[in-house]
Amino acid sequence: MKAMRTQVGIVGAGPAGLMLGHLLHLAGIDSIIIEDRAQDYVIERVRAGVLEQTTVDLLNESGVGSRLQREGMFHDGIYINVFGNRRRIDIAALTGRRITVYGQNEVVKDLIAARSSTGRPLLFEVADVSVHDLESEQPKIRFTQDNTSCEIQCDFIAGCDGSHGICRASIPSNHIRIYERIYPFGWLGILADAAPSSPELVYSVHERGFALFSMRSNAVTRLYLQCAPDEDVSKWSDDQIWDELLTRLHSNDGWKPNVGPITQKGVTGMRSFVTEPMRYGRMFLAGDAAHIVPPTGAKGLNLAMADVWRLSRAVASYYQSGCDELLDHYSEDCLRRVWRAQQFSWWMTSMLHRPNTGNPFDSRRQLAELEYVTNSRAAMTSLAENYAGFPINE
Ligand code: APR
Ligand code: PHB
């Protein structure tokens, strides 16, 4: 058995684990990050791409924002296409804040580079990960690497291992409560080599279902279609996907996305999920390990960043003053932001997807809501404030 020791043992090298390791490093705190996947897999994994101003500020202030500043696409607004009527919500004018489109995997790439330059450990392709003695002062992480059993003795463990990780699953069920809602649809997402035909995102409501136009660069478009949660993507030819996207996205002003070769496609189910509290003994959960939002509100990565900012501050305060106060408030403070984002993500999801209740009342009510949200300054301001995101300490 190989024995190691660190201040904070971090399980998972997604955005949450990597950013936590980085913020702790800046505070002079030692960590070991372990990840069960290969480095290339983590970097290539296609995920969401909208960063709140708060997330961008945090990346910049912590010295990992230089490529983001060069390559990120800064957006002042979004469009909502209501049955062909495309209307713009001017987020910058309404809130003074803007959003940045920059793929989550680019954030991960930048954070891995920052970690490597510190020389602090980041271990990929570990197996059989488990956590132990969580209620003691010296919790432990065990795993195997290259057929060697390893144990890390830690002061704290950060469970940043996403929604299917082992950290949350290691908490005795009588110590946590789970809140969950599963939606009766999913998103079929594609990446295409096509120049974005709109400088800003288009969220589109159509009789045939929701569609979303987004982008990754001046040459790559990212698009989504509402589909069944268990849709078999292999049954869709590229032509069928484009036909459906063009039908659902085109607007009466003549706008439609540019078509190009599809380079990646996949289906994701939609769910809302919250774990309370986000702590058990000396293990703290952050990011998708603690909560999942449906992607319609573009909040997942941003919530993960806010969690680890809070956790790094709490851990730093503990080492500076020996005081547990911020650690003790971590879960409660995170959950306030999490639930506000849950509400917003649920609302955007319900408003923009076609109700499948079969009751025409629901469709007419939805149209009235969309008319209100895209015409009333008060309603647009509320959407814009939530979409652009709140200051990090709120
Ligand atoms: N041991 C080590 N690592 C693990 C284990 C395990 N047992 N289980 C999972 N992991 C790794 C995963 O391979 C992944 O790299 O933990 C990482 C978790 O990363 P993410 O799933 O990206 O979660 P998080 O870092 O919280 O980022 C949240 O991801 O899903 C999106 O929309 C979400 O943008 C949000 C972001
Ligand atoms: C994306 O670009 O992948 C994206 C954008 C907005 C969303 C979700 C995903 O609401």
* Largest sheet data: 8 strands, mixed
Structural class: alpha/beta
Radius of gyration: 21 Å
Unreliable residue stretches: none
What oligomeric state best describes the polypeptide chains here? Answer: single chain
How many helices? The count is 11
Shape, please? globular
Distance between the termini: 44 Å
Order of the strands making up the biggest sheet: 7-6-15-16-17-14-18-21
Defining key terms:
binds adenosine-5-diphosphoribose; 8-stranded mixed sheet; 6-stranded mixed sheet; alpha/beta; binds P-hydroxybenzoic acid; 11 helices; single chain; 21 strands; 394 residues
Describe the structure.
The chain has 394 residues and is of the alpha/beta class. An eight-stranded mixed β-sheet has the order 7-6-15-16-17-14-18-21. A six-stranded mixed β-sheet has the order 9-3-2-13-20-19. Strands 1-12-11-10 form a four-stranded mixed β-sheet, with no helix packed on it. A hairpin with a 2-residue loop joins strand 11 and strand 12. It is globular and about 65 Å long. 43% of the residues are buried. The model has no long low-confidence stretch (mean pLDDT 97). P-hydroxybenzoic acid (PHB) binds next to loops.
